[in-house]
Amino acid sequence: MPSNKINILFSDVNEEQLPVANNKLHGWKHFAGLYAGEHVAATEFVIGATFVALGAATKDILLGLLIGNLLAMCSWWLLTAPIAVETRLSLYNYLNKIAGNSMTKLYNWANVAIFSVISAAMITVSSTAVRFLFNIPAQLNWYPSSFWFVLIVIAMGSIVVLVAMYGFSTVADFSKVCAPWLFVIFIAGSFNLFPGLSFHVLGDTAITNWSDFIAIGDSSIWTGFTGSGEKGIGLLEVIGFAWAANSITHFGLIDMAIFRFAKRKRYGLLSGVGMFFGHYIAWISAGIMGAGAAVLLKTTITSLDPGDVAYHALGLTGFVIIIIAGWTTANANLYRAGLAAQSIFVNHSREKTTAVVGVVTVIIACFPFVFSQMLPLLTYAGLLVVPVGGIVFAEHVLFPKIGLTRYWAKYQNISRSVPAIGSWALALMFGFGLNALDVMSFYYLFIPTWMFTIVTYTLLAKKYGADRNYSEEIAAEALEQQQIVEFQDAQAIHDQDFVADTSVVSKVLNAVSVISLLIIAGFACQVMFFSSSMEIYRINKSQFETYCFIFTIAYFGSAYTSLRRQKKLNA
């Protein structure tokens, strides 16, 4: 087909519905930064402290989080990235291709619910910092106990909704700026409180060896028992949660939307940057901060919210980290919820659907249970959408190996796939049935549910015609994909190459941001390793909190100015 006819054929098609063009692919640094930015966030304060409250033991935390996060990284590497790179499609578009519009709408409804709740939890977390400034009591019930807290949530949530509607691209870039600062601050906060914990347990602020760390952990952080004295969760539960926490994105394949831009399948390993900096180091650091704040205030960790913990670990910087980390995570998830809603209500703009979903999200955020129950919420969210990942895995990976045809539903012009919808419904009954019967730890329910879905969908798809001969349709599909590549190659000629900002001003700004982080880390190390007595510890802690706030401002001022200069250069 002549190139002008190909251009006419695809010019009116939304770019999101086409496979990603070769000139749009990214290198490894993009994915390392992306996963660091998304997985070192406000949720880490909640989850890290929750492990303490659930009574995990120190060795189980150190080993369990290592194994669980390694399994999660391998899931992105071996499941999500290969399918995304081979198809260059998001899960939404792939699902529409193999299961029809009806299934896609059901799936989008599920995503609206999931991402709205996660976004609500982050708004609540950010609000805990602001409520601390106004001396409003901690919200520890499932319902709000203060009218003023509700007003704070509405104010904070309104900002999140407006940004998700109109300014998300800026916030997405700002999240990448936040990633290195968040990583340093999480470690610095734990360093700032650890000598106090050491004195509480050992009677000495100095930690001389690894055995001291284990002793402090066993006695005051991860004791192996809950606050009520009951036996806590064990190694298998810790591994299971670390693996299941992001099952919605790896086994559930939502991160196909990210890895469709990857040049190589092995870039799935770069999810480990987020897992080991965010879900390993940050969870452990958050647990230390929570336990340390509880010791300082002579209370239990279950009586504290993230605002309490952050302030006593970091001083004024604690307010900054809670608000920024909460906002960046809430905005990303509310944006996803708005996109999913717009896919359902196609006659309305994304801005309008995001606004409506945002109002519901803010109402949910007024109820503190959404952040206090993050572990089960994330696990059940994964159980809800993992079957969809199983359907896609079966279609893309398994079908060609057993003589069935990919995209058979598309070739039959099916808009409502009975095998896909039926498999999802049966899988939910199976998974939640296992949970009701208490057959196994609910952290691992996503695995048998995923396998059940694959078997069920394969059998039903064969019954409905996946084993027929589609040679003509396959040839037409191959021709269409070739034409798409030709169209995208023609369009790429008009694209502007990225221009790096190498000006002296930007180099100075980048240097200031790096030096600011090094100074924060230096003062944190002074507290951790050079506090020979409680008196010196208090002096060092006070110095750290002052300079941490000053150089946090310096970091964001320089890093964000550099970001804006780079974006302006490529505008």
Number of helices: 22
What is the first-to-last residue Cα distance? 35 Å
Rounded Rg? 25 Å
Q: Mean pLDDT, rounded to whole units?
A: 85
Q: What does this molecule look like?
A:
74% of the residues lie in helices and 0% in strands. The chain has 22 helices and no strands. The longest helix has 43 residues, at 91-133. It is globular. The mean pLDDT is 85. Keywords: Membrane, Transmembrane, Transmembrane helix.
Question: What's the SSE blueprint?
Answer:
Elements: H1 3-11, H2 28-39, H3 43-53, H4 58-87, H5 91-133, H6 147-166, H7 168-202, H8 210-221, H9 235-244, H10 256-259, H11 271-297, H12 306-314, H13 316-344, H14 350-365, H15 369-372, H16 374-398, H17 408-411, H18 418-437, H19 446-466, H20 471-492, H21 504-529, H22 534-569
Helix pairs in contact: 1-20, 2-7, 2-11, 3-11, 4-9, 4-11, 5-6, 5-12, 5-13, 5-14, 5-16, 5-18, 6-13, 6-14, 7-8, 7-11, 7-12, 7-13, 7-21, 7-22, 11-12, 12-13, 13-14, 16-18, 16-19, 18-19, 21-22
Question: Briefly, what is this?
Answer:
The chain crosses the membrane at residues 61-85, 106-134, 146-168, 180-202, 238-261, 273-297, 309-332, 353-371, 377-398, 418-436, 442-460, 508-532, 544-563. With 571 residues, the protein is mainly alpha-helical. It has 22 helices and no strands.
